[in-house]
Sequence to fold (392 residues):
Amino acid sequence: MMNFVEKSSRYVMRTYARQPITFVKGRECTLTDSTGKQYLDLLSGIAVNVLGYGHPKLASVCRKMAKSVWHTSNLFEIEGQIALAEKIAKNTLDGKTFFCNSGAEANEAALKLAVKRGKTIAPEKDEVISMINSFHGRTLGALNLTGQEKYRKDFPSLGNIRYVPFNDIKALEAAVNSRTAAVFLEVIQGEGGINPVTADYYSAVRALTKKHNALMIIDEVQTGVGRTGTMFGYQHQSEMPDVITAAKGLANGIPIGFMHAAPHAADVLTPGTHASTFGGNPFVTAVANTVFDIVSDKAFLKSVQDKGALFAKELSALSSSFSFIKEVRGRGLMIGVELSVSADNVKTKCLEQGLIVNSIHDSVIRLIPPLIISERDIERAISIFKTVFRSL
Ligand SMILES: Cc1ncc(COP(=O)(O)O)c(C=O)c1O
Fold:
């Protein structure tokens, strides 16, 4: 008889390098695998489980929805969707929202909106600027936006996307012109290695897109839903973008994504130009409304800022004992630890010690824990890091 790892190799397409572990229980920030081993989770399903595991309010709303209408399609009005769209508008750009199921889909929608809007202004206004080292998803449009050649090389190119170096204002000035339909930007590059945008670069994107009547589109898929200590990452900056996209944490693991456009760009997509069968259905929006209410609370967001600052401070303090820690960066509970030793090796050793972390490009440890993580769990994580770092 095949064990679950062998069965997975046989039946599940190998698009991921998976750990031979399966989780059977979760409580707050702790997961238990099928052998009974416990893990402190600093990955949260890749920045998704913002309220951790087994949150009582989410369990209760899911139980309620299980007995109600789960799905009706977007051919009818959906009360939970309307309520969520209103919350998003009031907390962000005061425009309108399109609902979908993932980050890639949210970016596809934003790309279509930007190009369609551009072409109505001038037929040649269809160029999109994206950042080198960015990540926007794996579907073809989102993949084309992704500024990492290694992900794109085997697939078709849309031909209208240019990549510029992140945080390089001169290169941006040279690239944006009257043919630019939009500039896509992450306020902290997540998959790219936890690289925060500088305030000057953010302002330059805003000024140049305004000057050339292009859209400034912020991909909040990873930085959104409280991750950086504000509801959305752009809210640390002084100016607003035209469009935001989000997904990941919004329904704590039930798939949802959205694109929100400010009023001046909110009516570009009309019936027949874009759609999603599942997008924003009654079940997922009931969960997302609950998550939104909890996370957007001022005290909750302040706690993310405080815990993020504590975690970053404790990690930085480790660098006096371990010289291979080159930098600790990020914001809120989105933290990158740059190492001069193999981050993959550190990740594996942490896992052995019951700590789940992620590594990027073999040089950065990415920490994106549930936002409900306690100070005690942060101390526990630091203690495991010390054990692992001593063993290197
Ligand atoms: C910034 C950013 N955009 C888009 C995506 C793609 O999201 P999804 O995997 O939900 O399609 C990701 C996923 O990691 C992301 O980090």
Summary: Residues 298-318 form the longest helix (21 residues). The CA atoms of residues 175 and 380 lie 47 Å apart.
